[in-house]
Amino acid sequence: MIYGMYFCLNIVTDQVYYPSAVLLRAGEIILDETIPNFISKPNLANGPGKLSRYLKINKTDDGLNLIKSSTLYLGQETTPSVFDITTTPRVNIDYATNFKLKPYCFYITNHKAVSKK
């Protein structure tokens, strides 16, 4: 949780009990079939709390298998997209003395859904 208020979408990328995960901090909602004539709106999910609220992430999603789930899953594009990626130090982790300056934050360069750079 962030600030004790919002759930986060943190994806474990390796085996259990091995420290490897990716925190999804933002997303661009490009299609919403529940809204007629939906036009992409980058501010709907431009932060970790907003992304989780939009996707309705909550405590029951903890441990969800994102390969097999029918409610939330990771897909694979048939034609991979190519983006320029920017790396920066993570934000708001001043307590992490040995890691606060490491470039562990990745985002698509100049993407409109990136709220903090």
From TrEMBL:
N-terminal signal peptide: none
GO molecular-function terms, A-Z: alkylbase DNA N-glycosylase activity; DNA binding
Similarity comment: Belongs to the DNA glycosylase MPG family.
Biological process per Gene Ontology, one example term: base-excision repair
Protein name: 3-methyladenine DNA glycosylase
Superkingdom assignment: Bacteria
InterPro entries the UniProt entry points to: Formyl_transferase-like_C_sf, MPG, MPG_sf
Pfam families named among the record's database cross-references: Pur_DNA_glyco (PF02245)
Keyword terms, alphabetized: DNA damage, DNA repair, Hydrolase
